[in-house]
Amino acid sequence: MKFTEYCPLLKIEDIDANLPFQIQTFQQMRDAIVEHNATPHKQNYIEIVWITKGSGTLVLDLEMFTLQSNSVFCITPGQLHQLREDEDTEGYILSFTEAFLHMGEQEFDLMYNSGLFQAFSRSAGIRLNSEVAREMQEVATKMLKESNNIYLFKTEMLRRYLKIFLIYVTRQFQGPLQTVVQTRNLDLVEKFKSLVEVHFKTHRKVADYAKLLAVTPNYLNEIIKKITAYPASYHIRQRIVLEAKRRVAYSDECMKEVAWYLGFTDIAHFSKFFKNATGATFSDFRKECLVISPVH
């Protein structure tokens, strides 16, 4: 079975065709969660999973995370994932697009200036303290109520509540996550990552992306390393490795098929690249991935 058949892409329209935002409780959508996560899948929207009580597991790009009470997880567009929650699990699932978060806003770029989503990229989940959890519970209750009404400015109210909710989450991160003033640098990093997402199969040199961004390779490397602690080449390589690991784990494609998909014309080169990156051969890695294969 091909990777695209095995790992469908879910779109925000699959959730709500009228509003690019949705909040639901686990109790409300128990059956839908099971159906939605029958197989590993990707989606074109952001999903915040907040477990208030209970347990389960979240497989996120081949890593398995344990769901615990008062834990929050963020699933970003394009991430391959599968959620398995226990029957007594309680909590909320918030689904929204980046456009919804930014709609009509110029003065405050929460996603980039707060570092929230960059932090989630380094640590998939966080634990909330009880005080913050209570505050977030109030906001979640207001979002649920607002999402079910038919009054004017419903969209604006929901967006404001969502930003408040995300600010509470941001405050739980420890370390240097104060508002970042290096807006231009962060903007360059995000543009670079977006380009890597599109071109990683054909563009493997830092110079390729520097040309697209109209900067020098040295400058691009300097900024990327300053913001992320890793050089640009590392991010390019990691994106190729991630796609290779996804296809090994979630399809029956052979090594030659995966190599060709990723632009490797020399199979021996790809084999060496894969082993150096993962520490395992192609076949050994596929065997190891059986432990996170979906339950049917």
TrEMBL record:
The keyword Nucleotidyltransferase does not apply. Residues 190-288 form the HTH araC/xylS-type domain. Gene3D superfamilies: Homeodomain-like, Jelly Rolls. InterPro entries: AraC-bd, Homeodomain-like_sf, HTH-like, HTH_AraC, RmlC-like_jellyroll. It comes from the Bacteria. Keywords: DNA-binding, Transcription, Transcription regulation. The keyword Zinc does not apply. SUPFAM superfamilies: Homeodomain-like, Regulatory protein AraC. This is Helix-turn-helix transcriptional regulator. It comes from Chitinophaga rhizophila.
